[in-house]
Specification:
This protein is α+β, with helices and mostly antiparallel strands. The protein contains 12 helices and 35 strands. A hairpin with a 5-residue loop joins β12 and β13. α5 (92-104) runs antiparallel to α6.
Length: 645
């Protein structure tokens, strides 16, 4: 008994120590996670998981640690386990990230299924709407692909090289290639060295070789993503939050990013100062300038952001002060990451996102800025610039069509590599489609001269208009990236409208047949034509009223009820198939059947007559001996309603 008690005591002690050790590991990992130190957290969480200990919280954090380090295969496995073992209570964010990792691995069908679940959970999410609205987003990406010839950047290292920016005839870029001499200065986001700015072919010192940029710019911490004014004398760049040479952490213990400005005087970069809208509690990074240099664009997770980071803009005033930062809105920003903006001389905004439909990881997207509006179509620039992994920091010279971007795709030299490219075909933002057609009177088929054809948007605002010429023809254009209503109007006629949601590039012909708003009928007119009835047909060798014909006959009955003095003659016809005499009999039976039906519905018999004409009044070429299709013969099996009084 004493021995058993001793063994139980030892066992509980061992178990207790194991649980305490497990808790310590998790707590240690949590500390690393909250510091955005994802690489150390991965090792610790994985150790706990390998020992058989698991929880929803652990899987969330381990999956996120992989995800934010672009280790999508590992992240996918963890998210899959999380959603299968702890489905209840898991937020929609994890469905979205799981779908992202699946796309990175090329598992597009499964990714779509997961996105469908995501959309059901949170229909209000911008990304859900984007994916549900663009179910065939891969076809859209394919349409934009093949427009770039990708080349190598000869100055990549085995470390991270990214964030190119134009400077003079050369480039400034960010790299951690030789900043790791002192281990204490390593950045714990991914256990890589801190970043500095470098130049290549930017001046005589850097011809065909990589040289550190500006002694006063680089510090022992991060410097990255830069943009220069056109005169080359003002620089905006990203740097860690520093004070007196030391990093400053926010209340959560995170060292935030800030944008700094520097001015070149006598060849030296000086007057280095942070921008006034920086903050100790959120990051502001990745600056770029508008073509007129009056607007600074950047990425931030400041309050008012839709997601993990959004694209913002701020006015640069003539006196050197700044306006209030403004979010670019939910056409561009989603609940995920939008970052690394770049604006071209033609006012095209390029940025990276994992919230818009893409191939996986961060993809590069573009949208046209028009009149300071950010409501245009956001387009994925396609392959080969975009890949299944992260693609970012895209820049392009609109005149030469040459540019650069960075990616962590496979077969690179280092962790992140810079790639050069030549754009062989411009991205089409404006899809202008010509529409032509003729406007006619629906009854007489006569062309209508002077009719107005308008393009109307979803808010019923007129976008364009045209007037029909002497032949009743019109020509107009629409933007096929938008849903458009095309409406034809003319005095004395009921307007006619078509909704066009166009995706191809072929010209479109839309003819309009307008109904008169007032119809004057006379002796011998066909009431069916005046009332715009569908033709009343009969089955082959049958004279009973078909269900579809009942609907049209009811319209005639309604007209007769409205006008008690109206009298009609029902004329029925057959096709040419069969014996002529038989067809004459059959048509008479059809006329009588129609009259009997109307009488049964309350129309007085003395207001109706019926006569059959057999095959004597064919509407087409299908006479005896002519081979015709079933559809052509069907046109002759009909009834008409001629006005007698």
């Amino acid at each position: 008994m004493i021995k058993r008690i001793f063994l139980l005591t030892v066992l509980f002690s061992v178990l207790g120590n194991a649980l305490i050790a497990q808790d310590r590991l998790i707590n240690k990992a949590d500390e690393k996670y909250s510091d955005y130190s994802f690489s150390p957290a991965i090792d610790i969480y994985k150790r706990v998981l390998d020992k058989g200990y698991t929880s929803a919280d652990l899987l969330m954090k381990l999956g996120n640690s992989y995800y934010f380090n672009a280790e999508y295969k590992e992240a996918s496995e963890i998210y899959k386990r999380l959603l299968s073992e702890y489905k209840e209570g898991i937020g929609p964010e994890y469905y979205f990230r799981y779908a992202q990792t699946l796309r990175s691995l090329g598992e597009y069908d499964l990714s779509k299924d997961v996105m469908a679940e995501f959309s059901q959970i949170t229909s209000a999410d911008v990304r859900a709407n984007l994916y549900m609205a663009e179910r065939d987003y891969l076809a859209e990406i394919e349409k934009n692909s093949g427009r770039y010839d990708i080349g190598k950047f000869a100055f990549n290292s085995r470390y991270s090289d990214f964030a190119p920016s134009f400077y003079g005839e050369g480039l400034i870029f960010s790299s951690d290639r030789d900043t790791g001499n002192l281990a204490r200065y390593r950045h714990t986001w991914n256990s890589k060295d801190f970043l500095d700015l470098y130049k290549i072919n930017a001046d005589s010192i850097s011809v065909n070789k990589v040289v550190k940029f500006g002694d006063n710019i680089n510090t022992r911490y991060h410097e990255s993503t830069s943009v220069f004014t056109k005169d080359g004398n003002t620089l905006y760049f990203t740097r860690n939050n520093l004070f007196d040479g030391k990093t400053v952490k926010d209340e959560k213990g995170v060292v935030r990013l800030k944008i700094f400005k520097a001015v070149k005087e006598k060849g030296v970069w000086t007057h280095i100062e942070e921008l006034p809208f920086n903050s100790e509690s959120y990051s502001i990074a990745h600056p770029t300038l508008s073509p007129d240099e009056k607007i600074l664009y950047f990425a931030s997770d400041m309050p008012g952001s839709y997601g993990e980071s959004d694209i913002f803009k701020v006015a640069i005033n003539s006196d050197g002060t700044y306006g209030t930062p403004v979010n670019l809105g939910n056409i561009i920003n989603t609940e995920a990451r939008e970052t690394f903006p770049y604006v071209t001389s033609e006012n095209v905004l390029y940025f990276s996102s994992d919230g818009h439909p893409g191939l996986g990881g961060l993809d590069i997207f573009a949208t046209k800025i028009s009149n300071s509006q950010y409501i245009g179509t956001v387009l994925n620039v396609g392959k080969p610039v975009n890949s299944e992994l992260d693609d970012f920091t895209f820049i392009i010279n609109e005149e030469t069509r040459n540019g650069y971007f960075a990616s962590n795709r496979e077969n690179g030299v280092g962790e992140d590599d810079i790639y050069s490219f030549v754009e062989t075909k411009k991205l089409e933002f404006d899809c202008i489609k010509p529409i032509t057609g003729t406007v006619r009177d629906k009854i007489s088929n006569e062309v209508l001269v002077g009719a107005t054809v308008k393009v109307i948007d979803e808010n019923n605002e007129e976008l364009a208009s045209a007037i029909t010429d002497s032949n009743g023809n019109y020509s107009i254009t629409i933007d096929c990236n938008k849903g458009n209503f095309v409406r034809a109007t003319m005095q004395g006629y009921v307007p006619s409208e078509e909704y066009l949601n166009i995706s191809d590039s072929k010209p479109l012909i839309v003819d309009f047949y307008l109904e008169r708003d007032t119809v004057t009928a006379g002796y011998g007119d066909d009431l069916a034509k005046l009332l715009q009835l569908s033709t009343i047909y009969f089955d082959f060798d049958r004279y009973n009223v078909r269900p579809d014909a009942e609907i049209e006959i009811q319209k005639v009955i309604a007209a007769m009820e409205k006008y008690p003095s109206l009298k009609l003659k029902v004329t029925s016809h057959t096709d040419s198939q069969g014996v002529d005499a038989y067809n004459l009999w059959l048509s008479q039976k059809r006329a009588e059947s129609t009259v009997a039906y109307m009488v049964s519905k309350g129309i007085a018999s003395d207001r109706l007559q019926g006569e059959g004409f057999g095959e004597t009044r064919l509407v087409n070429r299908c006479v005896n001996g002519v081979k015709c299709s079933k559809a052509e013969h069907q046109l002759n099996r009909r009834s008409e309603f001629l006005i007698l009084e």
